[in-house]
Design a protein that fits this description.
By secondary structure, this protein is an alpha/beta fold. Helix content is 26%, strand content 22%. The protein is built from ten helices and 16 strands.
Length: 378
Amino acid sequence: MLPSYRQDSALTAYWFPTSAPASDRAPAIIALHGCSGALDSKGKLTAKWKELAVWFNREGMHLLVLDSFTPRGIKSICEIPNRERTLGEQERREDVFAAIRWLAARRDVDSDRIVIAGWSHGAQTVLKTLDRSDPFVARQPTQPRAAVAYYPGCSATNRTPDYALSAPLLIMAGELDDWTPAKACVELAERLRAPGINNQTHAGIELIVYPGSYHGFDGTAPVTLRRNVGNTRSGTATVGGNPEARINSRERLFDYLAEKLDRPLRLSHAQRFFTHTQEIPPASGFARYDDANAVPLGDKGRQRYAHFLTLPKPKAFVITEKGGWFMSADNVNAISTAFSYCPQEMTCWLYAVDDRVVWEKERPRRLSVATDGETSHE
């Protein structure tokens, strides 16, 4: 919890400090969720943010995931038209500056190297937070060093006549996005790059539009039509990941941070994105990795394992004692994430990791999960 901007309430935030010595003042990233919020259907922080924490922490950066919804009793605003929403980018902008104030007061944070990164509605909040033509923004004592916005809606910003950036901004958008169309962001970038009074001290904007990509291109979910969307004319939007755009966008994210924070990256992209944080158990010899028929599940479970085979690494597949399954893919925390889906009262075992089966036929030899998140024998 941290104090709100007006200090009349508390904000919910999740703090993931880097393991750098306390004497080192490290950069900090503030992450802003989209219209669905920061939590999953069980009220837990979604795995996406935990994976981001690992990536940033490995680079010597703190991560603060800011939850603007839970303190206000909100779960989602995706279904609500813009004009009917009780929470917008302006209120969330106050949350951002409250978070910046909290970070700047910490002895382990470099207040000159605070970055804000947002997704969808959170990305629109990023645009609002960087508007140096707004007196509220201009009078803030600590400004972000740089910002990243994933598929924001740029139309409202285009209607702000004197809009200008207070910090460098990277926008990443999908060419086929029909929820927050990239065209408006292209227009915004062109306007901000044009010569004029408002751009004489312009901080700089970079826009990348990924071909063949929809809203949420950096995720792993299949492309689907989402219904009951409150701020599109049709009430629907196409959402889903694009493997090539996912890889390219997260590589650009870290290259951009290295440039703007003037800090070389510690890890290669391969080390950061494709290496498990937990030790991978050896293959058990139970079955070939690609043999879905050998999986000790029913037909539906075997079908899901066949789908698992198509997913990107790092990945893990877990089987429950009641014949169910859980999986996680494209996630450096894949093993612990897959186990985290297993109810506390149920035993789960690790079946496969990446391209190896680790399942043992004898129950006592199977790998379950310990309280510290490490795999162990039952």
